[in-house]
Amino acid sequence: MKNMEWFDSLNKPFLSPPDWLFTPVWLVLYIMIFTSFILFWGNGMTKEKRLPLIFFIIQLVLNWTWVPIFFGMENILGGFIIIVIMYIFLWLTIITFFKYSKLASILLLPYLFWISFAAYLNFGYLVLN
To answer: Which of 5, 28, 77, 82 is most buried by its number of CB atoms within 10 A?
Structure first.
């Protein structure tokens, strides 16, 4: 990664996992996110599914913007703001997916837990640096 030297120079919060752990965790989470979306989609799009779909897309876009903001721009505060907003939209996604597929909602819970942990880490980097 481009800015690993910058990242490695930061004071790390307590409970920071080893760097090698992130790739396998995200691989499993993205499989679960994709599976959740497929279950939600079910028999296709309906007018009632628009709002949950919007929530899902927003949280996913925020997920994809975190790395360029945090690492690319070396913006710890920006990363924290993104992760907090993503957390809110992920909760909204889980709640609204439940109506269409309980399993789709349940599959997003490990992602929510990981994002909660990531928010803790991001906040730790913000406070310590």
So the answer is: 82
Whole-structure pTM over 0.90, yes or no?
yes
Instruction: Assess if residue 42 is contained within a domain.
Output: no
Containing domain of residue 127, as a range? 47-129
CA trace torsion 60, 63, 64, 66 (10° rounding): 160
Name the DSSP class of 11. Answer: P
CA 87 to chain centre: 7
38 lies in some domain: no
- Structure tokens of 2? 């481009």
Q: Please check whether residue 6 lies inside any domain of the structure.
A: no
Residue 78 lies in a domain: yes
How many domains is the chain partitioned into structurally? 1
C-alpha closest to that of 28 among 122, 110, 97: 110
pLDDT tens track for 55-67: 999 999 999 999 9
* Model confidence pLDDT, tens digit, residues 35-51: 999 999 987 889 999 99
